[in-house]
């Protein structure tokens, strides 16, 4: 047998493992991050209308121009900044493709990439594929705050990319303006590129503000901002995302993008372009998801889990240290098999599998599902 793997240490993702276990044991699945309620029928109708109107051939390589114009208007409205729709925005096959393409565009052998753990699991393998060196900085539960002095010490002449994620999956925390100013200060007058994963930008709670990298002028000049329509509009299976960056960075991105996917689903792009004409479709999302978070937390307030309310995303981390000293992976599997509720163990996202005795639960579910889940959690 030929030994040709470029990722010999990579196996099946924890998301697939836990979802398969949930299906096998007929458990409530709060593990993988997807809603179990329908996308807006108006959006579905607009996509169907686009198909019937002939938007069934290749879109322009950077994306449908009307959609890119709508994205540009959204950034002006939300963040008081501008991206040129013709040169600084590219529509992608989901945020993961955008992230992979950014890494493949800029990372060469022995380039160093700083990531913060717990980290979403698509970052590190992409760096490995291109011969880059991951420099991990472990964040500590329950607040997962960044130690910027440590970041400063970690930056070297080989540092090519820093990946940030806010609101943060899997912890549900957010970066604040003080964090972004520190990042801007540390990268100023360097050749470091920032990849800002902002797929949960519209899912933020308690009146907090999403601190997009594009709000900070010098930081914006070196940053890719990555976003997701799938996370925003409850249709993760559509795999529709986009990224924004200054022209000189986006020009390099598109050189790779054109040979990776070239262009993505055209009728969905047209439908999304029409849907974005009504800003309330994204402006109302914080309240929509905060109601779900608050409802879920009220239901489990008397459980034995320790709760630090999520600041953003549709994930809630629960501390089980007062329940058992089992490893989080073992406990998550036990809950799925015996108690019929699936979650994600956080250690799989940490450096060296650091176990903080916390599990991640997705609350992007119907009230009925959340009530069933809470009933189980309250009896553990």
TrEMBL record:
InterPro entries: Aminotransferase_I/II_large (IPR004839), Kynurenine-oxoglutarate_AT (IPR051326), PyrdxlP-dep_Trfase (IPR015424), PyrdxlP-dep_Trfase_major (IPR015421), PyrdxlP-dep_Trfase_small (IPR015422)
Cofactor: pyridoxal 5'-phosphate
GO CC annotations, alphabetized: cytoplasm
Superkingdom of origin: Bacteria
Keywords: Aminotransferase, Pyridoxal phosphate, Transferase
Keyword Zinc set for record: no
Family: Belongs to the class-I pyridoxal-phosphate-dependent aminotransferase family.
PANTHER family attached to this UniProt entry: FI04487P
Stated name of the protein: Methionine aminotransferase
């Amino acid at each position: 047998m030929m030994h040709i793997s470029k990722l010999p240490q990579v196996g099946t993702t924890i998301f697939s493992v836990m979802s398969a276990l949930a299906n096998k044991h007929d458990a409530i699945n709060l593990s993988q991050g997807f809603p179990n309620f329908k996308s807006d029928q108006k959006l579905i109708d607009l996509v169907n209308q686009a198909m019937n109107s002939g938007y069934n051939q290749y879109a322009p390589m950077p994306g449908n121009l009307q959609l890119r114009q709508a994205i540009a208007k959204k950034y002006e409205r939300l963040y008081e900044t501008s991206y040129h729709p013709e040169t600084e925005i590219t529509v992608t096959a989901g945020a993961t493709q955008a992230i992979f393409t950014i890494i493949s565009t800029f990372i060469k052998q022995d380039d160093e990439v700083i990531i913060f753990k717990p980290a979403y699991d698509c970052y590190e393998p992409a760096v490995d594929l291109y011969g880059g060196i991951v420099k991990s900085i472990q964040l500590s539960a329950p607040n997962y705050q960044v130690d910027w002095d440590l970041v400063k010490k970690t930056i070297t002449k080989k540092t090519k990319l820093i990946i940030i994620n806010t609101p943060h999956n899997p912890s549900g925390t957010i970066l604040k303006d003080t964090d972004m100013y520190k990042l801007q200060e540390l990268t100023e007058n360097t050749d470091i590129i920032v990849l800002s994963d902002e797929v949960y930008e519209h899912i933020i709670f308690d009146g907090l503000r999403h601190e997009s990298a594009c709000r900070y002028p010098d930081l914006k000049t070196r940053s890719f901002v990555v976003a997701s329509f799938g996370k925003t509009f409850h249709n993760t299976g559509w795999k529709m995302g986009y990224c924004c960056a200054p022209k000189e960075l986006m020009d390099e991105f598109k050189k790779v993008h054109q040979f990776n996917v070239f262009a993505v689903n055209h009728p969905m792009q047209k439908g999304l372009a029409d849907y974005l004409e009504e800003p309330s479709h994204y402006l109302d999302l914080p309240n929509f998801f905060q109601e779900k978070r608050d409802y879920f937390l009220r239901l489990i307030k008397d459980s034995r889990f320790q709760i630090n309310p999520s600041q953003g995303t549709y994930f809630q981390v629960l501390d089980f240290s007062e329940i058992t000293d089992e490893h989080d992976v073992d406990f998550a599997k036990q809950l799925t098999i015996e108690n019929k509720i699936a979650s994600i163990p956080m250690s799989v996202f940490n450096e060296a599998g650091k176990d903080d005795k916390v599990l991640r639960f997705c609350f992007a579910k119907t009230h009925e599902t959340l009530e069933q889940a809470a009933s189980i959690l309250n009896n553990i």
